[in-house]
Amino acid sequence: MLVVMETAAPKEAVDNVCRLIEQMGLTAHPMPGAQRTAIGVTGNKSQVDADRILTQPGVREIIHVTKPYKLVSREFYPDNSVVDVGGVKVGGKEFIVMAGPCSVESREQTLVVADAVCKAGAKILRGGAYKPRTSPYSFQGLKEEGLKILAEAREKYGLKIVTEAIDTDTIEMVADYADIVQIGARNMQNYSLLRKAGRLSTPVLLKRGLSATVEELLMSAEYIMAEGNRDVILCERGVRTFADHTRNTLDLSAIPFVKKASHLPIISDPSHGTGRKDKVLPLSRASMAVGADGLLIEVHNDPANALSDGPQALTPDMFDEMMVELRAMAPVLGRTME
Ligand code: PEP
Ligand code: MN
User: With 90 as the cut, is the pLDDT of residue 44 above it?
Assistant: First the structure.
């Protein structure tokens, strides 16, 4: 349920309605917007006495939200949410590119790639320090040492960093280093991890599960927002289909769907979405064209010897060429890229 306040309703009126909602055993989520203040109501397992709320001063109307996701829905919040990552704004006019290696492998590798992606115009450096691998015998990441390397790269190049947290034991430590905590595809429905991510004050990048529907992705984002963290960025990274010409099938139609259903920003990951370096450029172009707010791109200085995901990694030169092309496209699509 959504309580829409009059445009001119003072703060006291909003506070009063929030208090009443809490007294009714529900949770109030005040959402100040450009046009209006609305108060999202969650926690109602049965019929709510809407008339009690409707008769309070400053209340314009009550909207019953039929979708299973509430806080993430556009009905709750009609404006686009812009997630501010220490000054880098995801979900606004600017098209934001996050790039870097799949895994942080060494200090040297990370700094070389960070330098290259920074020069090419990426705003955020990616790199996994904790790697969720299919095989327990594969490289599992440098863990805290990897986080320290990322932090050094941030200092050196002025980039923000996004890195994955794979479990509830380490997510807080990851958040101490990261500007954005990534929840990977394999953990999209790890509800205890989502709840912990929801209690962080760090933005969260939530990737679509390997076989998750868009509604399931939005429900997982709802777990994070329900705990109080509003800074959620969604990521389309491809899903499993019968098609085997690519690693996954990048579901580009999910992007305009999410844009209509939700106010949250969504970026596209054509690296995992295709698994092939030669498909990253065309699918990046397409992602911008369908309305993605940015990209997550894997870049490696020596893809042939990468410890993970080498076949989908762009070289720094390929990445640079791609950025030149995207910058030329951006104005046509109403986006900006510095
Ligand atoms: C990654 O970003 O390196 C990663 C493991 O992605 P995903 O969770 O989408 O597979
Ligand atoms: Mn990867």
Answer: no
pTM above 0.90, yes or no: yes
Atom of ligand 1 nearest to the CA of 186: 8
Decide if pLDDT at 45 tops 90: no
The answer on pLDDT for 34 being more than 80 is no
Centre of ligand 2 to C-alpha 62, Å, is 44
For the stretch 196-248, pLDDT in tens is 999 999 999 999 999 999 999 999 999 999 999 999 999 999 999 999 999 99
Determine the distance separating the centroid of ligand 2 and the alpha carbon of 94, expressed in angstroms. 25
The first and second tokens of residue 181, run together, are 């905590």
Distances (CA, A) of 254 to 210, 214, 250, 258, 291: 14, 7, 9, 6, 10
Structure tokens at 199: 């209690």
The residue whose CA is least distant from atom 9 of ligand 1 is 185
**How sure is the predictor about 66, in pLDDT bands with cuts at 50, 70 and 90?**
confident
Q: Which domains does the chain have, with CATH numbers?
A: 2-63 (3.30.70.1140), 83-333 (3.20.20.70)
Closest CA to 272 of 226, 245, 315, 238: 238
Distance 272 CA to ligand 2 centre (A): 6
Verify whether ligand 1 is closer than 6 Å to residue 247 (CB atom). no
Q: What percent of the chain has pLDDT over 90?
A: 91
**pLDDT computed for residue 48 by the predictor:** 84
Q: Which residues contact 325 (CB under 8 A, 6 or more apart)?
A: 281, 285
| Ligand 1 atom index nearest CA of 309 | 3
Atom number, ligand 1, closest to the C-alpha of residue 126: 2
- Give the Å distance between the CA of 26 and the centre of ligand 1: 36
Burial of 18-31, coded b for 16+ CB within 10 Å and e otherwise, reads: bebbeeeebebbbb
Dist. CA 110 → ligand 1 center (Å): 17
| Ligand 1 atom with the shortest distance to the CA of 208 | 9
Q: Is the CB of 102 under 6 A from ligand 1?
A: yes
